[in-house]
Structures are given as structure tokens and as C-alpha cells.
Amino acid sequence: MIPPWGIRRAKPNAPPYERPVTSPLTATLNYTVSRVVSVPVSPLGDASPMSQHARPRLEAPVIESVAEVLIMDPDQISPDQTFTELGLDSILTVEFTAALRRRTGIAVKAATVYDHPTPHRFAAFLETVPGGDSA
After folding, report:
1. Domain 55-126 has what CATH class?
2. pTM score
3. Which of 13, 38, 64, 100 has its CA 20 to 30 A from that of 56?
């Protein structure tokens, strides 16, 4: 059954080029795809979520730095949520790395954040950086 919100309705008297091209099949597919929930898995390939694995020591400072920049409570930030989903753009990423350096003493380039897109992965990376294991 296709839910009523799954089919886009055309505006009354809309010209043909403004009418949505939606069939019942595409409406069903859009509804089904939007309901899929992704669960990050560990890099080792097992099916258990990363949240069940040991957390890096530097994960708390990473989350606190993100929260400081985004003016959020650290409890609202999931370690497995991407920085982009959290709202970090290029300017905020620079501010995030500066806040992280103040908090931990570890200096990293802002572009590194995009190579390790979640607080969990970024914290794991920081532990491999010289000076990251002593923080």
C-alpha cells in the first residue's frame, strides 16, 4: 500500500513541465528507501555496530570540541554520526581543529576531518598521530 504522502500531487492548473513525474512504483521505492536505517559496522567486517566496540581515549575530547563549535550539548552528539550530518562545514571544521588543539595539544589539518568523517573514526586516527597517544 502506498501511503498518501508517498505520491506528490500536482498543483491545480500547473503546466505540464511543473507536474511531478511520479508513478506508484517510484512513490513506493522512495517511501521504502527513506525508511531504511543504516548502521555503521566495524572496519573488521563483522556485523556488530561500532558503538559496541571499545572507544578511543580521545573520543570524548573530539566530541567536546565538536559540541563547543556547534554550541551543542556533548550528549546530543553520536560518535558514529558524520561531521557533515552534525553540521560542520569548511569554516566550522577549521574552528573544530583549533578547539581540539586547545583541548588536547594535537594539531591536525582541517582537511583531515574529511578523511575520518565521524568522531569515533577521527579519535581513532588521532591516537595514531605523534603526540596523540599521550593525550
Report:
1. mainly alpha
2. 0.58
3. 38
Helical (H) or strand (E) element with 115 = helix 112-115
- Distance between CA atoms of 103 and 125, rounded to whole angstroms? 16
Measured distance CA(125)–CA(27) in Å, rounded:
41
Are 81 and 118 a contacting pair, CB within 8 Å?
A: yes
Amino acid at 62: V
**Where in the chain are all domains bearing CATH 1.10.1200.10?**
55-126
Q: Which 3 state secondary structure label does DSSP give 27?
A: helix
**Whole-angstrom Cα distance, residue 8 to residue 21?**
9
Chain-wide mean pLDDT for the chain?
75
State the amino acid at position 123 in one-letter form. A
